[in-house]
Amino acid sequence: MATHGELEVEIVAADHFVWSGAARTVNARTANGQIGILPGHAPILAILEAGELSVDPVNGERLVVGVDGGFFSVDSNRVVIVADNARVGGSVTPESA
Fold first, then answer.
1. What is the rounded distance in angstroms from the CA atom of residue 53 to the CA atom of residue 66?
2. What is the rounded CA–CA span in Å between residue 7 and residue 97?
């Protein structure tokens, strides 16, 4: 569980779990452009565009996840990302999904 000053992040795809943990930042591309989420961010619900999102975990190296759409929500330092398809470390294309 994330502490004050951290984000609690959960990433899932339509058919599998991808990643969860405490993070310092989350960056993603939305229908309205690129967005960066830091602790204390206002609540938001946004449509996720195809591309890469990144998570800077509290422990460990930056995580890059390729997604091909979905949505994400932010509320009370909890970030939930639900992608149609997702793959850690690479892009998602119809051929590889």
1. 6
2. 28
